[in-house]
Amino acid sequence: MSEETQVNDENKKRTRKKRKNFLSNAKKYAKKGQMGRGTKMPEELYQYFVGILDAIKKGIENQEERNVLVNNVLERTKDEEINIIGNQLGCRVIELLLPYASPADLERFINAVTPELRRLCSDNFSSHVIETLLRVSCTRATEHLQNLDDSEDCDEIPKKKVKLEIVSKYSDEHVKTCSEFTLKLCKYALNNLEDFVWDNYANHILRSALKCLSGIELLPGEKPKVNLFKETVGGKKGIPPHISKMAYKNVPDEYKGIVREFAERLSSWPQFKDMGYQNLTSALLQVLLYAIKNVDKNLTKNILKKLLNESFAPDDWIANADDEKNKDSDEKKATLNEDDDEKVDLAIESGGVVQRNLPPVFDSESAVRLLEAALFVAKKKMYTQIYAKCFINRLGQLATMPMLNFTVQRLIDNCDIKEEFEPMFDELSDKFDALLACGNTGVLVALAKACLRIKVKQMQFVNTLEAALKCTEEGRQKYFPIACLRLVPIDRIELDKLDQEYFINVHGSVILQTILNFQRPGRATGALLELPAEQLLVVLRDAKGCHVADALCTGPFVGVKARDKLIWKLKGCYQQLALSQHGSRAFEQVFSVASMEQKLKIMTEISEKSNLLNGSAYGRLIADKLHVAAFKTSQKKWEEAWRKRSCDINS
């Protein structure tokens, strides 16, 4: 097996274990005569819930049918609410249906669970329903407060709120009931904080309470749950990596006051400094940081300072590193042959990556995740203190470590100050070889995006990456985009097989797209357009490579001549592009930026073999979108219709 194949195999996603199917397990339990785990449920009711879960899984797109199903199922739970939510299957079904419950049904469940909150909050099944009740109640209680204008920067608390009259679909009495339940449950959780913090199930209720009270919709990295009724999720796509903004809903001041109480009480505990080092409590503190960010800036600053000085890097922590030894090992690492994977791995393992000379926060994954949350919510001064105390002069070590390279990425993502980013870049610029060797290429993505965001070090980034990929020699520079897409040094790539499909690294694709958005993307653009059409076609038909077409066609600094050359370069290949799944996407991008004259030439090319288009699912979509049949009938009418359509879109 060649070296290149080995590298590609390492970069491929690991096969995940197949998740257990909840529905099939529920059916197996029923066949054995066991009506699920938890409280006992009559066999007839259990089989009914199995059928309901099966129907939900298949999808119910009609709103009336969905409402009928929800009302019928919740009607069957009357006087059996506590028993049903204590059962594994019953809990799952009720949890799915409560967001669509009528006001009467929701209030019935609220009244049923209220007397037994203490027991239910710690139950492994019922606690999930309590969480759902809290989220649904809070959503309905605050719906009338939401501003329809989402363009406002959610990172800052608005000083003046624009009052909008929003007609709620719920009555005032129901809104009041939901608000009272939200406050009651959150205050109950606050009063039992000492017990709930250490309980596996009640801890999640604390987190949900903080999210609801502070207006958090999605945490960073959290994806919205896919609705089993096949409703569209809408614009809530989660907060992907390398994004440092969060959206908060408007909530009453009374809610924020409870969040403040949560924060003050937790931060006053003597064991607060150790809570970040346990999975359960670290997750709670992360939610607390995101919540308090929207409530009280001064309290956020105080908590971060307390965490930094007492937990992340206490003043009395001792660094046992031998500086001379690390310096010598760094020099040895620099002289190693980068072509030898085993030697590079050895260099990374022994070349300065010694955990004992790092602050204690880096010894625990739980604490590291809390540190990442702290970086996300920290303001400029606090961010500088965290950087100085935990990261400075250690970025090279941290970036090459399997777990800690993600923390370096979050540090870079949240840097918006030119004077701070430049030393970070300088410290990591001589580690590009090691980052490529160990596969921690997410750090390179974070650096590229930071160069684009802060508008500094862009050419230095391209030059350093080009050197790491060994594309600086004359004759090799034109292969820089290929080496970047694969994140493999050019001497490991078989250049005579670039017209065949090959593995493209997702990070490499993102880096190349980012470079094409730099202020001077000429080198990357020119190299891409120098590739033969067959090799360019391989890139544009790939799942990750097709996004390069987006950057080429929409990049603010990619010239018109470069786009014209791309359109000319692909002449004769548009049919092949349109027939493939990912190539059809790139085709649409290229077609959208073409002039009318160029559009006509492209349409002429693909219409000559329109039968091929109609024979492929993706080609058929292209043919329908571009009205290929109408073009074949009358080119002039098609042109007039397209010009009119373009005018309507622009107006």
UniProtKB/TrEMBL annotation:
GO terms for molecular function: RNA binding. It holds the Pfam family PUF_NOP9. GO terms for cellular component: 90S preribosome; nucleolus; preribosome, small subunit precursor. InterPro entries: ARM-like, ARM-type_fold, NOP9, Pumilio_RNA-bd_rpt. Keywords: Repeat. The keyword Repeat applies. The keyword Repeat applies. Residues 1-21 are annotated as: Disordered. Pumilio repeats lie at residues 569-604. GO terms for biological process: endonucleolytic cleavage in 5'-ETS of tricistronic rRNA transcript (SSU-rRNA, 5.8S rRNA, LSU-rRNA); endonucleolytic cleavage in ITS1 to separate SSU-rRNA from 5.8S rRNA and LSU-rRNA from tricistronic rRNA transcript (SSU-rRNA, 5.8S rRNA, LSU-rRNA); endonucleolytic cleavage to generate mature 5'-end of SSU-rRNA from (SSU-rRNA, 5.8S rRNA, LSU-rRNA); ribosomal small subunit export from nucleus. PANTHER family: NUCLEOLAR PROTEIN 9. This is Nucleolar protein 9. It comes from Bombyx mandarina. The gene is LOC114249455.
